[in-house]
């Protein structure tokens, strides 16, 4: 661009004039400054030249930056065609019983916190760049909160202690509503392109009403959280991980059950779930 060059040249001319004026003033006292001979040393002669070049270059750089059009530099993510996408469909129980603290090796985590650790561990081991994540939360009803995202940070943000039960009316946990919502979302996906991941304590699971999964669901993993042997009080009753109910859900969906209260999901299990690669 011409204007930055003009500004740089003008700055250099003005700086040169200032250096000449300064040099003339120094000559009058050169014997005091440089000794009886009054000779200028090599650095003293070179310094004015370097200052002029520096100021000219600085003027050009700042003017160029000022005139450049702002541009956001973002990494380009290649768009994946819908028929080539792989899907992870996460159904997460966010009912009040999930806030009970009886999970983890020392029972020091809430069931929600343990769920977050399980899902985070799983997501951080996935390597498929075609994987799109959809997340449905369920309590007294079901709501999709993320649909077909490839940004893991979005999912992790929802899992990082966010209280999502407050968006539902108070009532009984309707876990099958979450599965039904998941089935609706996955209905139009290609066959065998999705893995269904259900995370719950199995509290108040009905005996009937299991939704049928569409052909797009290639693998199902049900992860249980909460102490399966020792109950905690909530709403005047004992609540514990209902292993039997969760195993039945996994069996009826043609999937696997994993007790995640103490152990993370092994990579060998994840590799057998169809759309997940580790």
| CATH architecture heading of the largest domain | 3-Layer(aba) Sandwich
Number of domains: 2
Portion of residues within helices: 25-40%
- Low-pLDDT ranges: none
Instruction: Output the CATH homologous superfamily of the largest domain.
Output: von Willebrand factor, type A domain
Work out the strand percent.
15-25%
3D structure, described in words:
With about 280 residues, the protein is of the alpha/beta class. The protein folds into two domains: about 1-65; about 80-270, Rossmann fold (3-Layer(aba) Sandwich), CATH 3.40.50. It contains eight helices and ten strands. The strands form three sheets. A six-stranded mixed β-sheet has the order 5-4-1-6-7-10, sandwiched between helices. Strands 2-3 form a two-stranded antiparallel sheet. A hairpin with a 1-residue loop joins strand 4 and strand 5 (about 140-150). The longest helix has 27 residues, at about 1-30. The relative contact order is 0.13.
Helices and strands, with pairings:
Layout: H1 2-28, H2 30-34, H3 42-67, E1 86-93, E2 101-103, E3 109-110, H4 111-124, E4 131-139, E5 141-149, H5 152-159, H6 175-186, E6 194-200, E7 217-224, E8 232-234, E9 237-239, H7 243-252, E10 256-259, H8 267-270
Parallel strand pairs: 1-4, 1-6, 6-7, 7-10
Antiparallel strand pairs: 2-3, 4-5, 8-9
